[in-house]
Amino acid sequence: MAFGDPKNAIEAEGLGKAYRLHGSPIGRVLGALSFGSYRSYREHNALQDVTFTVGRGEALGVVGANGAGKSTLLKILSGTTDPTAGRFRVAGHVASLLELGAGFHPEFSGRENIYLNGALLGYSRKELDRLFPVMLEFSELGEFIDRPLRTYSSGMAMRLGFSVAVHLDPEVLIIDEVFAVGDMHFAKKCADKVYDFRRRGKTILFCSHSLYDVRQLCDRAIWLDHGKVRLLDDAVTVTNEYAAFSKSLDANQARPGEWYVAPPKRETMPSIDAVRIMRMGTDEQIYDVAPGDAIDVRIWYRNPDPYNTKIHIAVGFQRNDSTLVTADTTEFARIEVPGGAGCVTYRCPRLILLSGSFTVFGVCLDEPGLHRFDTVMAPSNLNVRSRTKDVGLVLQDHSWIVEPGHCIPTPAAAPSSAGEP
Amino acid sequence: MSGVASANSSATGSERPTGGKETIREARPPAGKSLREGLIALVSYPRMVVAQREILSNFYQRELRARFRGTVLGFVWPFVLPLVLFLVYYFVFAELLGAKFGRAGLADAAQKQLFTVYLFVGVVVWSGFAESVTRNASVILENSNLIKKISFPSEILPLNTVLASVTIQALALIAYLIVAPQLGWNPWGWRMLALPVLFAVQVAFSLGLSLGFSAMNVFVRDTQPLLGIAMTFWQFLTPVFWARDQVPGIEKYSYVLTWNPMHHLLEGYRKVLVNPGTPQYRDLDAKAGFPDFEWPWAECANVAAASVVVFVLGYSLFLASKRKFADEL
Fold first, then answer.
1. CB–CB contact A112 B62 (8 Å)
2. Which stretch of DSSP H or E encloses residue B307?
3. All domains of chain A, ordered by start, with CATH?
4. ipTM over the 0.95 cut-off
């Protein structure tokens, strides 16, 4: 990899960041006066030897546990803090959405903050005068635009931040967990903007705990673990590996899974009325089943504005320890969901789940599958009681073949076909 | 100290230059390179200011508005404040303590009047200077939300405070220039041309100190209270409330004045604004023996020399620690 390749928007080479944890202010003064011969601090490596490139127009996801160095990496790349090892290159203007209200002056009004941020990204006052009404409209702040930022609610600060970042049209957009804030209606607007940004060939660096969002938005992803790169591959592989790793870590700490996020509804937004589980092809609701049974999951949805908003429907099965067993959407299957109101059936002619209690839920997604409008659970858990001795999560389609003698020679070792660099 | 390689100077066009900007940063550049880049950064402060003029003007306008926003008197405050201070000082020093200018052969009334004006100019200039430096000690901390979270040109913040304080000082001096002729005092004339030069050297000197102290205060928060005490000391060591001529044994301590750039600065302002040299004043007391008006170039040169030293030290400290601000705040 040649450093400085114009095809790349971001290049990082051996990036590292060591924070100095000072014991006392006196020690720091002595350290400064003695030109480093007196040392009173411990070093904490927040990031170590991180190397990657992001091509122009590519979206890279960043996943990892809390404290894995995700935020440090994004901070270095947005230029607020310096690496203590390695080097990086970012081509073009960068806008970053790191935290709520980041980059805004709390005493400045919304309007003043817009002009300030615009000036920082190299915009002239004239250009900003042109862009200002667009940003104001998008942010839906109304007359609050002239109040100081410290009087804003977190939702308002987020709306302003998002509006500024996307409308200033940077070449590189760095986002750290922002989809989570704001109401339903605005979250959808943001998702649309980000998707649009992506379509126009801009570069995105996206950090999120929502693996689903990472998978939908990003081409590739990087998994950071204790400041080091654990895996760098396509987004699906990385999110799957990371999910598997996290599950093994907290198998017993059942907390609401990411699919459960159920933000407040809005009348004008697509929604789900009901989710029911029925015996296949009948109207009989059934929640106690056995492996091999045939069931339908029916989802009644409503899409009031199908011309402007196309939707997809998803169904998920989650075991009570919050393991997502399976989920599928009409988007994966490339099936169009008609507008207005309707019912979608997820037909499962042979249930392969083994004993356990499963939450079944229906999700209504936007067209790119990025934003969840609504999530509704079936009124009762699906309780599977197995009548065979099979153990585990699922009953795989299988058969046993027994060969007598040594007619098949034992192969030398497993061929390494999976996982290319 | 390797800087950000960003090259977009033509921000005046209607379209923003795209693709022109590239950021490259390295962790530990070689010592020689870092020294060279540091020196370049040191001398290119004016260029940086020009490049960031939009942001500076944003902050400047805001700062001036914020200082008086919500007050009933609004922009009358910069005129009221020095006037009140002046009246208090005048009452205490000239009336109660009977302080006179101490210049031989001058009538009592003239002595008093002269001292009043002398005091006024001193107080206005000193508070303009002191305010900009003490306010600046915390300027980086106050703007942590910007510095911590986005790539922000923090160098312009001390300059902004200095410019705002100097603006308020200029308003007070304008008030003086309007009021003085009513008292039979006429400082108007070609000599006003020296004022911009005096302001320029004052800004340069205040800026150097401000850059240094604002950076220091990020790492050692004791800087700010210590600076408050130091400024009080400095104020009394500078002839703000007293005049050189009033102190009999001043020659013994003349080094205090010689090595005090603020003494030279005040002297410069007073040469222009206080020393009469106008026919009107001469009529007041013909035997006064006042010096004729002199241009304050020697004083300006002294302050300018001090400014260079202070700026190099202060800005070096700032540049060396600037990249650690985000981690410290």
1. yes
2. helix B297-322
3. 8-249 (3.40.50.300), 259-384 (2.70.50.60)
4. no
